[in-house]
């Protein structure tokens, strides 16, 4: 990325299965539904986001991916205003540092299990040591994924988040709508408001954070 997009967010967590691709595709879907020129970039070897884009109907709000030309670095298409970067498990060290130079925000999905919580705690410690994060040039937010607030696991996640000097933007429920929509290259923002009302309400604090200056 040679030019910083108007809004750019990295979706990251070192643990696999945290919900990164679900979060990344739906962030991209939100911005696309607002008429933004969105690129969803996938730096995961599994290329989950790229496969998802291949399923997406041209009748839906457009979301692009990297422009790739022979002997040239991958870059967002010309005119891109919003960039979402999906990342692999285990993103650390110099590769993480390179990604942080491309974005102005980082979203960290966390599931309510002790293994996810411990892995995320270590990752946040590493993040805090990066220059752009320490200088507050990159904003960090946490999203609780697949959370049933009635469970003890959810309470453990809430206690973990309460001890952080970082915003917990929202808790997203374990909804089959995400699975059903993803199977067709869609997001909850491509569904009718009546069908996705509960999930959209859970997203609103996250949307406010993403769209803030």
Automatic annotation (TrEMBL):
InterPro entries recorded: CobQ/CobB/MinD/ParA_Nub-bd_dom, DNA_Partitioning_ATPase, P-loop_NTPase
Record domain CobQ/CobB/MinD/ParA nucleotide binding: where: 10-188
Matches recorded under SUPFAM superfamilies: P-loop containing nucleoside triphosphate hydrolases
UniProt xrefs under Gene3D superfamilies: P-loop containing nucleotide triphosphate hydrolases (3.40.50.300)
Record Pfam families: CbiA (PF01656)
Protein name: Cobyrinic acid a,c-diamide synthase
Organism name: Methyloversatilis universalis (strain ATCC BAA-1314 / DSM 25237 / JCM 13912 / CCUG 52030 / FAM5)
């Amino acid at each position: 990325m040679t030019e910083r997009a108007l809004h750019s967010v990295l979706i990251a967590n070192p643990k696999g299965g945290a919900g990164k691709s679900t979060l990344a595709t739906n962030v991209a879907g939100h911005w696309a539904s607002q008429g933004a020129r969105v690129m969803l970039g996938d730096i995961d070897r599994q290329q989950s986001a790229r496969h998802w884009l291949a399923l997406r109907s041209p009748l839906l709000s457009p979301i692009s991916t990297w422009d790739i030309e022979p002997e040239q670095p991958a870059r967002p298409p010309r005119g891109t205003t919003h960039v979402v970067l999906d990342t692999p498990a285990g993103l650390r060290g110099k590769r993480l540092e390179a990604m942080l130079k491309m974005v102005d925000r980082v979203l960290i999905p966390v599931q309510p299990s002790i293994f996810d919580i411990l892995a995320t705690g270590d990752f946040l410690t590493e993040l805090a040591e990066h220059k752009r994060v320490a200088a507050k040039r990159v904003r960090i937010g946490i999203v609780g994924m697949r959370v049933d607030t009635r469970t003890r696991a959810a309470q453990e996640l809430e206690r973990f988040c309460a001890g952080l000097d970082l915003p917990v933007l929202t808790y997203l429920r374990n909804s089959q709508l995400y699975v059903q929509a993803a199977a067709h290259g869609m997001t909850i923002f491509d569904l009718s408001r009546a069908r996705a009302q509960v999930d959209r309400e859970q997203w609103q604090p996250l949307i406010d954070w993403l769209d803030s200056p």
